[in-house]
Amino acid sequence: MDDINKLIYFDNAASTPLLDEITSEILPYLRSHYGNPSSLHRLGRESFQAIEKARTRVASLIGSKKKEIIFTSGGTEANNLAIKGITNRLNRLNPKRKCVITSSIEHESVLGTVKDLEKNGFNVRFVPTTLNGQIEPECLKKTIPSNEVALVSVMLSNNEVGTLQPVKELAAITHHYGGLFHTDAVQAIGKIPVDVKQLDVDLLSMSSHKIHGPKGVGALYLKRGLMLDPIVSGGGQESDFRSGTENVHGIVGFGKACEIASSRLEESRALLIALRDYLIFHVLDKIPDSRVNCSTENRIPNIAHFTFFGVQGEDLVNKLDEHGIAASTGSACSSKHQKPSHVLKAMGFSYAEVTGSLRLSMSILNTKGEIDRAIPILAEIVADLRSRSPFAKSK
Ligand SMILES: Cc1ncc(COP(=O)(O)O)c(C=O)c1O
């Protein structure tokens, strides 16, 4: 039975609630197991062993070896470390490799990083996206220069519209031209099977709080044999790739989140697809002039992205919040700045399509009952906002 007074949380692409099993595993590392993992005494050794156990669990979720995992403070740092670390190193060894390619629908942590590289003399190119939010391998072939490409970075799943990119094909093209390939898999891990060997990527970024783990922790997969220049100097933790005393409780929680995600992957995927499709069907059925964006194929199971013509997405989010429903217009990091989504603009959406958008993202904790409760509220809010909007007719 759903508790009708409970908040309905449909913003799981921004962050997810911590699972009780994960909290229980973290608590001892906040209370009694406080040793520094670099210390030689028993408490230190216990923390070190806890990190290594978590490393094995993270590696197992993506089919990598334990030694290929570098813990970071989250997806943002993993993206920075991957892109800056690799390009700086490659460029030091071969100054001709100055080209970095990414897509225009990446997360801000990738776009900001390549902007920094551009200021330092790198040649940054963007692969365009289709109206469906897809990066086509043919477009990468046209963008990539031979002998000059250092790195291509294209996300596995987009955080606003949920589209999956053909990373395996994009990585193969990149390797053909002599570059390395990085993917931001923050939204994809734990939702779909992700195997670094099968995708043949060189670097892959992850974050804990999108899969019911704690915030402020993530990891970078770095293929064995590759080296990168660290972006933080210090005590040489994480095999010299990421200095700083490890966030032991965060890493333990992330490890547990990966273990749970691995063991329930198929079950969770089926549940999320069922919830998402139920949501989409009923939204389109009950709310006129609404549209679901991007095809239902090639997408992660938990994100549904809509446009409600004639309303402002932000007004919608605020009104839903007043009714106890948490939703988002899109990217978690830019939504407070109230700027139009760079992803939707890059996909070629019109002003009305961009401003009228709403992202509803599910987790395994959501239920059909919550969807049944939310849809009449959403329908009423949309109708009310339209009745007051001068743009109500604009498409
Ligand atoms: C695709 C993607 N990459 C990177 C990040 C950043 O991850 P973190 O919040 O762990 O820094 C996010 C977070 O929203 C994301 O959705």
Jot down its keywords:
binds pyridoxal-5'-phosphate, 13 helices, Aspartate Aminotransferase, domain 2, alpha/beta, 3-stranded antiparallel sheet, 2 domains, 395 residues, 42% helix
Count of alpha and pi helical runs: 13
C-alpha geometry? globular
Share in helix: 40-55%
Quantity of strands, as a count:
12
User: How many domain units?
Assistant: 2
CATH class of the largest domain: Alpha Beta
Low-confidence stretches: none
| Alpha-carbon distance between the two ends | 39 Å
CATH level 4 superfamily of the largest domain: Type I PLP-dependent aspartate aminotransferase-like (Major domain)
In terms of DSSP E residues, the strand content is 5-15%
Mean of residue pLDDT values:
94
Largest sheet: 7 strands, mixed
CATH architecture classification of the largest domain? 3-Layer(aba) Sandwich
Bound ligands = pyridoxal-5'-phosphate
Describe the structure.
This protein is of the alpha/beta class and 395 residues long. It folds into two domains: 8-18 and 265-388, Alpha-Beta Complex (Aspartate Aminotransferase, domain 1), CATH 3.90.1150; 20-263, Aspartate Aminotransferase, domain 2 (3-Layer(aba) Sandwich). The chain has helices at 20-31, 42-62, 75-93, 108-119, 137-143, 167-176, 196-199, 248-263, 265-286, 313-322, 342-346, 351-355, 368-388, and strands at 8-9, 69-72, 99-103, 123-127, 149-153, 180-184, 203-207, 218-222, 290-292, 303-308, 325-326, 357-361. The strands form three sheets. The chain has a seven-stranded mixed sheet with strand order 2-8-7-6-5-3-4, sandwiched between helices. The chain has a three-stranded antiparallel sheet with strand order 9-10-12. The longest helix is centred in the last third of the chain and has 22 residues, at 265-286. The site of pyridoxal-5'-phosphate has 15 residues, from helix 3.
